[in-house]
Amino acid sequence: MRTLGTTLAAAALLCVPAIAFAGPAAAGPELQAPLNTMVTEGSGLCYGNIRGNVDVPTARITLTFAFYNTDPAFVADQPYDPDSPCRTTAYVTWENLDTGATGEVPIEFAGAAGSIIDPNQHLPWYNSAQLPKEPGNYKATVTTKELRWPESVSVEYTLPAD
What we know:
This protein is about 5% helix and about 45% strand. It has one helix and ten strands; from the N terminus they run H-E-E-E-E-E-E-E-E-E-E. The N and C termini lie far apart (about 55 Å).
């Protein structure tokens, strides 16, 4: 049985606007597409997208989150706000394509989000995580546990031997 909340969440995800923002400088290979997602770990219902890139020399993945909050009463004015209704966790699964080694790194976010009433007041926020530094060919895949489209996004990159 579909509830009103589920219907609203699905409708909002299908109508996710193109969120334009300046992300971190592209230091390396980027995720092949944005991950559009609902953000429901907090107290509210938010929607938006996740973008990111891997810095090849350091093997750090940086993710940029830009979300809109559907509660017009809450607009945060700082990039990290633990009371934000927009909280989510991205799961970065990595695989060394040469050795078969795998692992997962969660990246948690609780950040500012613009109100749907004032779409110009969204603040993208960033977080990064260390991936393996051993030389090789890698694939990193990003997903969340919330409603999302596509199911996941990924990036392939190579860490050269010194």
